[in-house]
Amino acid sequence: MRVSASSMQEIFRDMKFPMTKDQILEQARSKNVSSDIVEDLQMIPDREYESADSLIRAIEAASQQVGGGGGGKSQSFGGSGTGGTGGGGPSEGGSSQSFGGRGGA
């Protein structure tokens, strides 16, 4: 969800529930809400919502399914050892890779 729950509460508090997804989208557009909110609303299941709270929970659940939580991958390769029979000193080294990302908002 790109918009805070408190902002959503403020936007939806004047709406008369229960409302269907289509009715909610129509109301949101008539209030000229941001495109981020409209996109969030388009992700919710097509059903009737009993309250602003139930709507916000649906938005949060839908955004987690689509955007996922935090993401990232980390790999590290390292080690130490001693040189082989031909002489040579100790060898230490390693490689580290990090692939990180931010999940949904």
Concise synopsis of the structure shown:
The protein has four helices and four strands.
Given the structure, what is the number of helices? 4
State mean pLDDT (0 to 100 scale).
Answer: 75
Radius of gyration: 25 Å
Q: How much helical structure, as a percent, in the residues?
A: 40-55%
The stretches of 5 or more residues where confidence is low (pLDDT under 50) are 70-77, 95-102
Strand order of the largest sheet: 1-2
Distance between the termini: 6 Å
Structural class, by secondary structure, is alpha+beta
- Gross morphology is globular
Task: Specify the biggest β-sheet.
Answer: 2 strands, antiparallel
- The amount of beta strand, in percent, is 15-25%
H and E order: HEHHEHEE
Number of strands: 4
How many domain units?
2
Please give the structural blueprint.
Blueprint: H1 5-12, E1 19-20, H2 21-30, H3 35-42, E2 48-49, H4 52-67, E3 71-81, E4 91-101
Antiparallel strand pairs: 1-2, 3-4
Pfam family, one: DUF2795
Organism: Methanosarcina thermophila
Protein name: DUF2795 domain-containing protein
